[in-house]
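Final report, section 2: Outcomes. Of the targets proposed, Cardiolipin synthase B is the one most frequently requested by collaborating groups, and we therefore present its record in full.
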Amino acid sequence: MLDSIAGARRRVWLETYIFADDEIGRRFAEALTERARAGLDVRLHIDAAGSALCFSSRLEHYLLTQGVQLRWFHRWRWRQPLRYNRRNHRKLLVVDDSDAYLGGFNIHRENSRSVYGEQRWRDAHVRCDGALAVQAARLFDAFWRGNRRWVLPRTAGTATVLMPNHTRLCRQQLRCAYAAMADSAESLMWLTTPYFVPDHRTQEALITAARRGRDVRVLVPRKGDVRLARWAARAAYAKLLRAGVRIFEYLPRVLHAKTAVVDEAYAVLGTANLDYRSFFLNYELNFITREPGLCRQLVEQFEKDLEESEEICADRWATRPWTDHLTETVGWLARRWL
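The predicted structure is given below as tokens.
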């Protein structure tokens, strides 16, 4: 990503949920300001809640004085308190019309091996070029201008699409897409998500697929950065396990990837978690593809992750202590706000 920014000739557009004033954030700030000083159109769209505790007024001043166009998404306003609950969770970098990067990577040290070491977050990001990069630029620009439900026109026969979750025709597009994937699965549906708080319709879609004999697996983190979200996720385990859905908890480090593979024939990689906030509240962007190489790569990565995971067994789960039931209830009651 930094190399692409350094090679930009016309514009660099970046939107992110977290932009931290740390070693990685400062590297990106230097790269962005260097291009801005060179006369390029450099835009930075940061979520006000996601970066509230890690950004700094010093870094903001530096970016603005060096020519970067900086915009905050949904800063707190006393006259509109409820809008603060709707966040821009997208992580998208567009360089000229040649490169676009999309996925789970935020701009902070936790996503860097060189800075954070082997305990860096296990995440997933994808680079696209050509027509997809042009589409990504159009999506960024529409959102920047406040047209948050603009969607790309559909093209028949396209192997890969960029899908936001809110459009003029459907405010729950990603939720509908996951339900359709579960319904169409012929052999397997493997999901990786850091925050697993599925609504009832999504739960029923996974249960129905498992009862039809499909290999439905969900990979979630054992270690997480939001304890309440982990409690909420575990509240859904029992019902899914009874239906034959297999659940695995990833052990070595924080799992932050958001991917899905169906029948090794099509796949999803993006910014959306399988939870209420991503499906109903936040603005998200996912990369959905039938490209065989990427589908195989995600299958192989899922299998590799399973080697470092522990499967949750239904019998043992049924005998967990009453304190776990209590924390799960607390998490589930808070599920719409996580």
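The two ends are 29 Å apart (CA to CA).
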